[in-house]
Amino acid sequence: MTGKVWGTSCLLAAILLGATATATRGEVVPDGSRLAGNISIGKSLRIPPADIPDGYGSFADLNIYLTSGNSPQPDRIAAALRLAQKKLDVCRIFLRVHSVNYVVGPPLLSEWESMEFNNGLSPWERAFFSLTPRRSAGVVFVKRLDWTIGRDGITAVGYGGYLEEETDYLKTSRDRLFYRNHMAGYAVLGRSVGESSLIHELGHALLGLRHVKDRSNVMFSGLLARDDDSGFNERQCARGRANYPWVRPVPDRQMVSARPFPPE
Ligand SMILES: [Zn+2]
């Protein structure tokens, strides 16, 4: 099954549009305490929704966020999304780009700090994700993740709903609600990650999947590389298709039923 992903030309236009966006409003201290209020969404391009081809029972809309100076080339983003679609074809989940957005913020925003290294929500995460639409999904492109652990640190993260149950990073019910409503569904990728990282992180973020030990699986994590032809299995697909609201059933194609909306 091959799906038309979306118009690459739209993305290219959006990226050229943003080339003149103002980059800096102010500097921040490394603890991020001055991030709040210093970040806004600049130019934004809403992509007209593509028709979902026959054969896909579910779909996911992605918002793409580009931080100044750190966007991969449009053709690289397009290639990563095409590869992600190829891997999601087995799950019959169609990916659409809903919007492309320029993030206006201090340069240090591009040095993303994730909750995994802060033992709790970071100022980066709170400041940025307070701007994203509720219960949306997408990808944020930054320079790198976690300046605290150096240049070669972790380069990508996928905020899956399961982290709420499996970690103690979310300390209060307010944090848990913030995560559920604004962060879950998003992947953050550093500039140096390979194209195959996108689908692994979307596996966490969109499909809500955990790591596995099988190298032939997209969700393998370990010191060894994943197999080139790694894929999802049907059990993972089923879980992903039920991960509403980030993955939605296509109306009138009742191939799968969504899980009830979690309580807010
Ligand atoms: Zn992972």
From TrEMBL:
<protein>
    <recommendedName>
        <fullName>Matrixin</fullName>
    </recommendedName>
</protein>
<dbReference type="GO" id="GO:0008237">
    <property type="term" value="F:metallopeptidase activity"/>
</dbReference>
<keyword id="KW-0732">Signal</keyword>
<feature type="signal peptide">
    <location>
        <begin position="1"/>
        <end position="23"/>
    </location>
</feature>
<dbReference type="InterPro" id="IPR024079">
    <property type="entry name" value="MetalloPept_cat_dom_sf"/>
</dbReference>
